[in-house]
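As a warm-up, study this chain.
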Amino acid sequence: MSAAEQLEVFDLGQRDYLSVWHEMSAFTSNRDSEVTDQLWLVEHPPVFTQGQAGKPEHLLALDGIDLVQSDRGGQVTYHGPGQLVAYPLIDLRRRKLGVRELVTLIEQVIVALLARFAIEAYARPDAPGVYVDGAKIASLGLRVRRGCSFHGLALNVSMDLTPFEQINPCGYPGMQMVDMARLSQADCDMEQVKTALVDEFVQKLGYKTAIMPAP
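Now compare it with the structure written out below.
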């Protein structure tokens, strides 16, 4: 099976944001057209990240949590335990995808995943991400280098949402945040959510199989 048909999945467990950012940046800079696309799954310790378009007025407090200036797109967001972060490292030219198409596909992946847990969600044309009844449950922030994507999505599974009160999430004052645990009658087990995310990625992005190499 060719590299174009496979998606390698790596579960990194809990890792600090900076080290994972630097590793995926190096991977993207050094890969070539023969390298298989990868999907990295991770939970980060508490951290605020500010995208390239970030404005300081959206940082309201930042009490006791570090802020990292990132090279992804978008504004400020929060990462913490209980949030599933997924980084799709995809050769967009090989898959014949534009950036906007990739954003739409990732949103469709999240909406379909949430439907498995009986959560009705939707994307908004004016604000990337995924929403439930006006509250944001997943954020997106990507970068493309040499035709390949890195950074990705953050899905709130079962987490402390109070740090979001220290920022205007994604640059929207008053934006309410929500997680799966507050919405689903089903058990939102992180491992089940990861499995559903990988399944939907394979389906929506047209891979034939996902493989998880041994650690």
